Amino acid sequence: MKTVNSVRWLRISLWGIALLLVVLTPAISQNSNPGVIPIQAKAHGMTYGEWSAGWWKWLLGIPADQTSPFNWPNTGACSTGQLGSVWYLIGISPNPGTATITCTIPPGKALFFPLINVECSSLEIDPFFGATAAARQICTAADLQGVGNLFAEVDGVPLLNLTSYRAASPDFDFVVPYPNILSVPGHDVAAGAGKAAADGYYIMMAPLSHGTHTLHFGGSVLTGPLAGFSIDTTYHLTISN
Fold first, then answer.
1. Distances (CA, A) of 73 to 196, 216, 233, 240
2. Fewer C-beta within 10 Å: the chain N or C terminus?
3. Phi, psi of 25 (to 5 degrees)
4. How far apart are alpha carbons 104 and 77 in whole angstroms?
5. What local confidence, expressed as pLDDT, does residue 159 receive?
6. Domain coverage including residue 208
7. Is 76 found in the same domain as 3?
8. Statement: residue 67 has pLDDT above 90
């Protein structure tokens, strides 16, 4: 009887292990980039698309002056407007070369950043204007067409399958100060509220270990309304209190 029971429990244990492998293997195989939150996952309670809306609300809400994240190459102030367990990074369009940013980030912070992205809103002019939620979705999809040459490296190790990290935001409300990054020559956007939608390729990095790290990422728009636009940004990060 003891032998029969032992065999029975062995069979049950082996069956359980096999079932566990069946369940876990797809999840493991879907994430080809260790340290990157999978695109289909909810990270810190939100989807990639929802985080992309948060990223734009964060960026649009900062004045276009010396505090702007676009001045980080000079100020190294990556803490601008950052709250919570996820910090946002920006990509910068250099002309030519790569934009380089050196800054310190507290430990335990996930990092969310676009390889290349676009938004359309109710406050802007073409090719970034959309009067309705449907029009804004069409606008972002049109502006993002022709994206290529996506790349991202973490400490010299390339990330894979970057085209799978595309995420469209829900339609969202936002508020801009004055001056703001929506203003273009001949068309200043006053402070106020608007509605927007976004689309792009994003990465959500799990918190990096203490010490120094290098992120290098970007992409290009090869055809379409924004042809010629590119992102090439290198971060030298120190993870420390």
1. 27, 14, 10, 19
2. N
3. -60, -45
4. 8
5. 98
6. 33-239
7. no
8. no
Q: Which amino acid is at 220?
A: S
CA distance linking residue 199 with residue 10, whole number of Å = 51
Under the banding of pLDDT at 50, 70 and 90, the label for residue 31 is low
Tell me the two tokens of residue 195: 């509605």
Whether pTM > 0.90 for this model: the answer is: no
Domain count, the chain: 2
Confirm if 209 and 147 have CB atoms less than 8 A apart: no
Q: Are residues 16 and 69 in the same domain?
A: no
85 and 191 assigned to the same domain: yes
- Residues whose CB is less than 8 angstroms from the CB of residue 23 and which lie 6 or more positions away in sequence, other chains included: none
pLDDT per residue as tens digits for the range 151-207: 999 999 999 999 999 999 999 999 999 999 998 878 889 999 999 999 999 999 999
At which residue do the structure tokens 């032998």 appear?
3
